[in-house]
Amino acid sequence: MARFKHLARKLRLAAAEKTNKPIPIWVSVKTRMRVRRGFRLRNWRRSKLKNI
Fold first, then answer.
1. How confident is the model at residue 30, as a pLDDT?
2. Which of 3, 5, 15, 46 has the fewest CB atoms within 10 Å, measured from its CB?
3. Residue ranges of the chain whose pLDDT lies below 70
4. Which Gene3D superfamilies does this UniProt record tie to the protein (predicted)?
């Protein structure tokens, strides 16, 4: 990717970076381990972002 990024693309990448975090521990404790991982977790090699 180019070094210079447009502001809109930079904001979308920052938002994707923030959402790519595991769920808090208290969520799995509260649901008694029914929810184990976040469904939005993404790896930069496995799946790419659309429309960026």
1. 93
2. 3
3. 1
4. Ribosomal protein L39e
Cα atoms in the Cβ-side hemisphere of radius 13 Å centred on 20: 12
The pTM of this model reads: 0.69
Residue 10, C-beta contacts closer than 8 angstroms, at least 6 positions apart = none
Give the amino acid at 29: V
Task: Domain ranges for the chain, please list them.
Answer: 1-52
Four-way CATH pick for 1-52: 1.10.1620, 2.30.30, 1.20.120, 3.30.70: 1.10.1620
Cβ contacts of 12 within 8 Å, gap of 6 or more: 49, 51, 52
- Residue 51: both structure tokens together: 């429309």
Q: Which two tokens stand for residue 3?
A: 């070094």
